[in-house]
Amino acid sequence: MKKWILFLWLLTGCTQEKDREEPLFASLSEEETVFISLEEYGLTAVPKEITQLKKIKKLSISAIGSSKGWSIYPPHHVLIERMKSQPTQELPDEITQLTLLEDLALELLNLKTLPEDFDKLSNLESLDLGSNQLILSEEVDKLTQLNKLRFLTVEGNTVTEADLATLKQALPELTINPEKPNEYIAP
């Protein structure tokens, strides 16, 4: 009888352990540099589980691409047109908990807005917001609070001369790409 109880206990314990899935990004929790392709993970948006990346300093998130090597992309204007036909996305507020981040790339995510507490990412030195649906005039206040920010990419978003001037005035050391509004947006 005792053997059967032990056998059942082992069997159920092993089954429960086997059935338990590893949390999303758990295998990356100790990494300082991570590239996440939403397409590769079968995701359509950045999940709240992004907070699993507790030690992350350099993070790149893209809707397409591969973390396993080279990817072949269609021309930039085709990507922009494809993106505009998709619903806009929002980043989860949880991304602002990644306070060690120094370098963040959020490309081709079809973002319409940044989280309200985006300024919590106070260690950011480089930020790539390329090819999203952001209206920079609605995000300038958040960006000017990032005092360590030195490099900003905003191509593929709605940008005006006034937006660029405000950013340069608040952050004189900031290098912005493109230097002129809407320089790289396809017609």
Q: What's this entry about, in short?
A:
With 187 residues, the protein is α/β, with parallel strands linked by helices. It has a single domain (23-177), classed as Alpha-Beta Horseshoe (Leucine-rich repeat, LRR (right-handed beta-alpha superhelix)).
Question: Please, could you describe this protein's structure?
Answer:
With 187 residues, this protein is of the alpha/beta class. The chain has a single domain (23-177), classed as Leucine-rich repeat, LRR (right-handed beta-alpha superhelix) (Alpha-Beta Horseshoe). Helices cover 25% and strands 16% of the residues. The protein has 5 helices and 8 strands. It has helices at residues 2-19, 38-41, 76-84, 140-144, 161-170, and strands spanning 33-37, 58-62, 89-90, 103-107, 111-113, 126-128, 151-153, 175-177. The chain has a 6-stranded parallel beta sheet. A two-stranded parallel sheet has the order 3-5. The radius of gyration is 21 Å and the shape is globular.
Distance between the termini: 77 Å
CATH superfamily assignment? Answer: Ribonuclease Inhibitor
Q: And the CATH topology?
A: Leucine-rich repeat, LRR (right-handed beta-alpha superhelix)
Low-confidence stretches: 1-20, 183-187
The amount of helix comes to 10-25%
Please tell me what the overall shape is.
globular
